[in-house]
Prior knowledge:
Elements: E1 6-9, E2 20-25, E3 31-32, E4 41-47, E5 52-59, H1 73-80, E6 86-89, H2 94-102, E7 106-109, E8 114-115, H3 116-129, H4 133-155
Parallel strand pairs: 2-6, 6-7
Antiparallel strand pairs: 1-5, 2-4, 3-8, 4-5
Amino acid sequence: MKGPTRQLQVLDGDDDGALLKVAFASADRIQVDQHFGSSRAFVIYGVNRERAKVLSVAEFAEQEQEQDGNEDKLIGKLDLLDGCAAVYCKACGASAVRQLLSSGIQPIKVSQTTDIHELIEILQTELREGPSAWLARAIQRIEGANGQRFDVMADQTWDE
């Protein structure tokens, strides 16, 4: 499967590594209303304790979104979600759950159509008051990646 047919990426010059990337399977960009495998669109937010901002929106071709058991269609979605800590969706098949978890992405099922902003508020409250196990692991991965980036910079030679 190919990647998204359309993708909007917000470029504001503010590269804040402290933002946790979280994806939402959403056709209308307002509510989580899609099954992961057949989702026509994803909205990716950067979230921390105080703020949240849209990082990108991606749409996939409708004919590629049928629930047909074709595992190849997940590749483009998994590539799109690279670097995300979690993906919120209405449902997610067992194979997709395994692939997401092996990519370090926590699938989170919402039982009904839920507003994205409500889910972000819940996530921010959890960030402030103490993360769940999956969120604590995601934070450790982000902090580890940021620490490695600074270690690499420290190992480089600097001209003064």
